Amino acid sequence: MPQKLSIQTAAFAAASAPLTIIYAAEGEAPAGAGAAIWSATGLDWQAASASAAFKGKQGQALDIIGQGAGRLIVLGKGKSEGDVPLNAWTDRGGSLLAKIAAARAESVAVVIDEAGATPAAIAELAAGLRLRHYKFDKYKTARPDDPAADIAITLHVADPAATDTAIADRDAVVEGTLLARNLINEPANVLGPVEFAAKAAELSDLGVDVEILEPAQLEKLGMGSLLCVAQGSERPARLVVMQWRGGDVGDAPLAFVGKGVVFDTGGISIKPAANMEEMKGDMGGAAAVTGLMRALAGRKAPVNAVGVIGLVENMPSGNAVRPGDIVKAMSGTTIEVINTDAEGRLVLADALWYTQDRFKPRFMINLATLTGAIIVALGHEHAGLFSNNDELAIRLLNAGITANEKLWRMPLSPAYDKLIESKFADIRNSVGRPAGSITAAQFLQRFVNNVPWAHLDIAGTAFGAAATETNASWSAGFGVALLDRLVRDYYEG
Ligand code: BES
Ligand code: MN
Ligand code: ZN
């Protein structure tokens, strides 16, 4: 059985558990409700902290065992001056969970009484607890030393009722991020296009309207670009359309489009064996879009949003698309397939065109694990941002900073666009190594017309980054918190 984590809130006076955690700022004794709990130990703060060389620095812990009230841990929170950004609270929640897990505690009281501990800040801390607690271990046979007991954490705060409301709202977004992580971590033998579509269909329980388009319908729509990627696989393509109608009837929706290659072998232009298993995560864009729809519906966001994901498997076979083949996209554009491993842009070409054509959205943002070149440029720190609209780009950059899912803007220009011209068709899907992420973005832009549009190349951030305070798993769920933040901060009300 996986370990469960439950989080609840209570007033300061109720703080009592086998393990109590309070905070102290650097060079200071515990303050507020923490001071009262400390004084109940009967210990002298100066003497106790000095003997353990506890200075209150971030990450430091002073562990007091054997007191009447049970075990007490004082956690350092660093210097107290200055405004703390919201995402520092998320990180604090993450490191708190790590401390609690290391202490093997089952029932914990955490006292948070300080300036800046608003309901929104505590909700971030609670989100950090849950995000750090996440594990994808469903395929591991349990070992005897696994912690069997569930963890129950009570956050003792100034305003429990307001904090509960803030936590419930933030929890919807956590659920979205964790859904995206699960989809990405799931192996491709379990999660094919059909199975992914079924997962998306489960969002109808939350009031999302889900349509699943099958190959015959995609054929009819003229999606020769998306379909050519799927033709080498035994498993048929799906295009999933998810609609959340939380805004006014008739208001143009915000549109999100995701690359959902459930496995990318490269096709006939097959990839080398090293690390190919990571290509089970090549549906990270589709996972983020699905997670975002989960988040928006879960918190009943007052906005109209549509999520469109193109689900295919890129396999080599006797029926696979070949280098040199020319296909026709829904837009009418003809594409020379130079490299069958540049398949994500072929999927998105039709998904983007379809989305702007059908929904006339306010904006269209696509997410895709599109190019290895974006990892060369930005590593695992920032996702690449490409946009035809400065206002949308700046809003995305801001949302990325607030949510701590950072973006870095890359250029688009007619000179780069020229590079994708083909000898035999309108455009080609692969150009060569120079500016590989940019030419991929230029390819996508051919399918967006004049809609404000942004492309997020998340090849470096969707999976495979080093562990952080808020994520100990291979996949990150990158994009869900970022886009929820964008919607919240700029498009509601
Ligand atoms: N899915 C890959 C990009 C990728 C690489 C994502 C590593 C995550 C980690 C994409 O389909 C791909 O193969 N891109 C090629 C494009 C090239 C053939 C023009 C690449 O980046 O090499
Ligand atoms: Mn590829
Ligand atoms: Zn790919």
UniProtKB/TrEMBL annotation:
A Pfam family: Peptidase_M17_N
EC number: 3.4.11.1, 3.4.11.10
Keywords associated with the record: Aminopeptidase, Cytoplasm, Hydrolase, Manganese, Metal-binding, Protease
Subcellular location(s) of the protein: Cytoplasm
Cofactors (names): Mn(2+)
List of residues binding Mn(2+) 2: 259, 264, 282, 343
UniProt GO MF annotations: aminopeptidase activity
UniProt domain Cytosol aminopeptidase: residue ranges: 339-346
Catalytic activity annotation: Release of an N-terminal amino acid, Xaa-|-Yaa-, in which Xaa is preferably Leu, but may be other amino acids including Pro although not Arg or Lys, and Yaa may be Pro. Amino acid amides and methyl esters are also readily hydrolyzed, but rates on arylamides are exceedingly low; Release of an N-terminal amino acid, preferentially leucine, but not glutamic or aspartic acids
Cofactor: how and how many bound: Binds 2 manganese ions per subunit.
Active site: 271, 345
N-terminal signal peptide: none
Amino-acid positions noted as binding Mn(2+) 1 in the UniProt annotation, renumbered to this chain: 264, 341, 343
Database matches in NCBIfam families: PRK00913.1-4, PRK00913.2-2, PRK00913.2-4
Family the entry assigns: Belongs to the peptidase M17 family.
Its biological purpose: Presumably involved in the processing and regular turnover of intracellular proteins. Catalyzes the removal of unsubstituted N-terminal amino acids from various peptides.
Annotated PANTHER family: CYTOSOL AMINOPEPTIDASE, LEUCINE AMINOPEPTIDASE-RELATED
Protein name, entry field: Probable cytosol aminopeptidase
Organism name: Devosia yakushimensis
